[in-house]
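In the previous chapter we treated chains in isolation. Here, by contrast, the input contains two separate entities that must be folded as one system, with a combined length of 486 residues.
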Amino acid sequence: MIDVCNLSKAFGDHLVLDGINERIEKGEKVVIVGPSGSGKSTFLRCLNLLEQPTGGEIFFEGQNITDPKTNINLIRRKMGMVFQQFNLFPHLTVKKNITLAPVTLGICSQQEADEKAMALLERIGLVEKANAYPRQLSGGQQQRIAIVRALAMNPDVMLFDEPTSALDPEMVGEVLEVMKELAQDGMTMVVVTHEMGFAREVATRVLFMDEGQIKEQAPPSEFFNNPQHPRLKEFLNKVL
Amino acid sequence: MMNFFYGIWDSFYYAFFEAQRWKFYLGGLKNTLFMSVVACIIGVVIGLVLAILKVSANSLSKPRGRRTLGGWLIRVGSGFADLYTTVIRGTPLLVQLLILYYGVFKTAPKEYAMWVAGLSFGINSGAYVCEIIRAGIQSIDRGQTEAGRSLGLNARQTMQLVVLPQAVKNILPTIFNEFITLLKETSVAGYIALTDLTRAGDVVRSRVWTITPLVISGLIYLILVILLTKVQGVLERRLGASDRRL
């Protein structure tokens, strides 16, 4: 589904991603872990070109998205993204947040979008917040809404950029719960996170990034119980 | 004490009602308002376009964005916007007005002088409005743009539906400040023989030989500014709806 060939990204002289090759299949739940500054968020943000790679190519469903001729806006419709800081639109109600993109892009009518939004809110138990504004909600509620806002576009893959890092500890669970349900429904997911429990439980594959490279990858049981790379061993010692 | 107030009243009566002088002020007020509204509209249009050019150029950091025609146009436009704000903010309004009136529009019929003045003030205001709007847009967190783009909205849709509506709230106080300044600065129109509110007061002053007419003009400006401030308050409250917590 996503093919990454020799991807690199430099900010000035600083090489953040150093020739990454990776393939993500449909239905996979790939969790990316690693120390801060290892390039994992940059890698994720390159996948939908929120960061423009400085080298290499990315293919999504067979299309080269790094080709300047590709209409990235059409590609992004199929790639949902959830941010660390939620990034809900504070001037719009929850329902409007969810329906803005599908309606603006002519994918469905306002009424269809409203119905879909309510169904999605039902799923995360926040129907009564449909007409509230984001600032009136807790961080956990905002992040769950940010997830369904992305889902409203019917994406083929969901990208999560440290979705629980900005949350108070007691709200992490409710967001991870929604993500787990999403995984069970068969969504292809790429998740950058520090939640090792989530990685262990949900991931089909865990990647360890360090110094702009994927240093090791394995299914979670092997990844956590039998790490090979010395940097990964060191990392796991610190975080587990 | 009473004599003092009678004295003021007499002076006011003489400067305002006597010989239907209030018509002077009214005429001046009309001209001042006309020039202000024309300038305000021109200023906001110029300012908005230039501000969006400047902001768009900033977000064109992608190496692959440079090769497109649109990217090139934005770069050129942004360069022009920088030049524009530098020159316009760097020279006095009066100099700009005189150059426009005696130079560019030398051959224009005299009855269009009011339009020339409005245009001149609008060109001037546009430079300030540009900086106000640019700062307003840049005060919105980058994450908002990223969220909009990640949903598949294009740059224009994101600007229009996500960034600008939020920026307006931040822009409002400073842009009303600009409108207030603009309203009062139209008084330099007297230099090209237009009878605005200030000039009207001055004409009456030369008849009655007191400063009362100028005080009257001043009071009318003051009332206009207070009204503008009220409008600002109403707008701020309305736009603040999403800030309220339950």
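The first strand of chain A starts at residue 2 and ends at 11. The two ends of chain A are 32 Å apart (CA to CA). Compare these points with the single-chain example from earlier in the chapter.
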